[in-house]
Amino acid sequence: MTVIDSVRIVLVEPAGERNIGSIARVMRNMGLTKLVIVNPHCNPLSEEAKVMAVHGVEVLEKAKIVNSIPSALQGCQRAIATTARERGIPTPLEKPRDVMGWLLEENINSALVFGPEDRGLSNQELSYAQRFVCIPSNPEYPSLNLAQAVGVCAYELYQEFLNQNQKTVIDTETEKQDDLADLKALEGYYQHLESVLLQVNYLYPHTAKATMEKIKRIVNRSDLKTQELAMLRGMLRQVEWGIKSHTLED
């Protein structure tokens, strides 16, 4: 399970079957699977909802129906509620893009809460969340359809999920690069290898340079790590000890 799978979409008293179906579809588009519906005022599994859901029907079928917001948030450590307007009670409003990463942390369950189509969330309903989102829109007509609001937030959530994954890949690659043998150490190894190969007559002075170039190309393709290079240098030292011992015995 990925961190985005731990985020649930909570719809409070939705009344539009087509809206619920459209939300299931966009959730599927954005990698979200957990839908919780509080006191729906329609049938979330109606034929109309399923038609709008298209390939998100499975999200509808697995949706959890509860009778209160606390029930919908059971097991969650973090919740963001959405609102389209300022409130009398001081309520810092944030943009979806700025806050979605807060929901995407390992080993936590979180929720995005959306209000009914006709009124949005009340102050009491908002109080169940810790942070609040308002989607920037045209001030002359700021109100978004419920499915559109979920779509915008789900998109921003998924983009943050992708960004975090990309950062993890970059960090992992950086760690790998940090562990690679540096060029100075590689050059020391090549000089050491050439010396040993000359001693055992694998290389000859007049062809050593050309042959070593071929060997370097082969070795360079392997992206040797520091520890691997140390092991190879240890093998060369053992060969040198063997040569020396054999010479002394003779």
Structural key phrases:
2 domains, seven-stranded parallel beta sheet, Helicase, Ruva Protein, domain 3, alpha/beta, 250 residues, Alpha/beta knot
Structural account:
- The protein is α/β, with parallel strands linked by helices.
- It folds into two domains: 3-173, SPOUT methyltransferase, trefoil knot domain (Alpha/beta knot), CATH 3.40.1280; 183-247, Orthogonal Bundle (Helicase, Ruva Protein, domain 3), CATH 1.10.8.
- The chain has helices spanning 17-29, 47-53, 57-61, 69-72, 96-99, 123-126, 146-179, 183-199, 208-220, 226-249, and strands at residues 7-12, 34-38, 64-66, 78-82, 93-94, 110-114, 131-133.
- Helix 1 (17-29) links the parallel strand 1 and strand 2 (34-38).
- Helix 1 runs parallel beside helix 2 (47-53), helix 1 (17-29) runs parallel beside helix 7 (146-179) and helix 8 (183-199) packs parallel to helix 10 (226-249).
- The protein is rod-shaped, with a radius of gyration of 31 Å.
- The mean pLDDT is 86.
- Keywords: Cytoplasm, Methyltransferase, S-adenosyl-L-methionine, Transferase, tRNA processing.
- It is found in: Cytoplasm.
- Residues 7-155 form the tRNA/rRNA methyltransferase SpoU type domain.
- It catalyses: cytidine(32) in tRNA + S-adenosyl-L-methionine = 2'-O-methylcytidine(32) in tRNA + S-adenosyl-L-homocysteine + H(+); uridine(32) in tRNA + S-adenosyl-L-methionine = 2'-O-methyluridine(32) in tRNA + S-adenosyl-L-homocysteine + H(+).
